[in-house]
Amino acid sequence: MLTAVWAAVVAAAAAFVAGAGVAVYVMLKAARLMSETSAAVAGLRERGDLLIERANAAIDQAGEQIARTETVTASMEGVTAAMTQMSGHLAAAAPALPAPGEGTSGPLTWAAALVYGVRWALGARRPGGDAPWRAGRGTAPAGRGTAPAGRRTAPVGRKAAAAASYRAAALASRGVAALASRSNGTPR
């Protein structure tokens, strides 16, 4: 039979085996935890590298855009200088235009346009009004004389003369207004 010493030795051995089993179990769990942690760290490192590469690409692209912007800005400064120089040349070469408030589209312009329109309408109505063009150059300019082949012309009456004079006045006032808006060659 077993004596008390033997019982103590068996109990100590059993406790040692149980303690060693628990220690091995804890070590296995710690090893698994470490391997999972190292895998997670490696994944984070890969993602961080990818993120850094994307950030570097974005920074490089931004640098290229800035370089392009600087190029465009420099060329725009050159264009501005050239336009300033050209407007100076135009201002020196062009005659002085009257100021917009000095009657550029006043009654005198309307009267001149009306006289021109009536004269044109009466000249087109006269039977021999386009004779110089027929005799000398062959064809009449557009809008005067005979119509192109196959097209009928309406007789010129008071309504047509009034419409022609109105069109001439409108065109004259537009031309004067366009010239007046460009004082000294600079557009507004």
How would you sum up this structure, described in words?
By secondary structure, the chain is mainly α. It folds into 2 domains: 1-93; 100-141 and 153-185, no CATH class. Helix content is 74%, strand content 0%. The protein contains 4 helices and no strands. It has helices at 4-93, 107-125, 131-137, 158-180. Helix 2 crosses helix 4 (158-180). The longest helix has 90 residues, at 4-93.
Sum up the structure in keywords.
188 residues; mainly alpha; 2 domains; 4 helices; 0% strand; rod-shaped; disordered C terminus
In short:
The chain is an all-alpha fold and 188 residues long. It has helices at 4-93, 107-125, 131-137, 158-180.
- Based on Cα principal axes, name the global outline: rod-shaped
Low-pLDDT parts are 131-141, 179-188
Radius of gyration: 49 Å
Helix content: over 70%
Order of helices and strands: HHHH
Please identify the structural class as seen in this structure.
mainly alpha
Our estimate of the beta-strand percent is under 5%
Number of domains: 2
Number of strands: 0
The total of helices stands at 4
**Average pLDDT taken over every residue:** 76
For the record, give the distance between the C-alpha atoms at the N and C termini, rounded to a whole number. Answer: 122 Å
Largest sheet: none
How does the SSE layout of this entry go?
Blueprint: H1 4-93, H2 107-125, H3 131-137, H4 158-180
Helix pairs in contact: 2-4
